[in-house]
Amino acid sequence: MRLGTPADFKIGTVTWLREHELFVLHVAEGFGVFSSRCTHLGCTVRRTESGFACPCHGAEYDALGRVTQGPARAPLPWHEIEVGPDGALWARRDHTVDAGTLVTVAGARAAAEEPS
Amino acid sequence: VSGLWADLRDACVALPRRLAAGLFPGGRGDGSAAQRLRRFWLYHLFPFKVTERALAPRATFALGLITLVLFLVLVGTGLLLMLYYVPTPAGAYASMLDLESVVFLGSFVRRLHRFAGHAMVVTVGLHLVRVFAMAAYRGRELNWTLGLGLLLLVLGLAFTGYLLPWDQTSFWAVRVVTAMTDHLPFGGAWLQRLALGGSEVSGATLVRFYALHVALLPAAAITLVALHLWRIRKDGGLARPASADGPTVPAWPHLTLRVGVVALLVVCAMLLLASLVAAPLGPPADVLRPSNPEKAPWYFLGIQEMVSYSARVGGVLFPLVLGLGLWLLPFVDREEAGVGAWFGQRAERLRMAGVALVGLVAGVALVVWYLEPAGAAWVAAQSPALQELTNPAAAMLGLGGLLLGFFGWRGGSVRAGLRTALLVWLVALVLFTLVGLCRGPDWVFFWPWEGWPLAF
Question: Do A41 and B443 touch (CB under 8 A)?
Answer without folding.
Answer: no
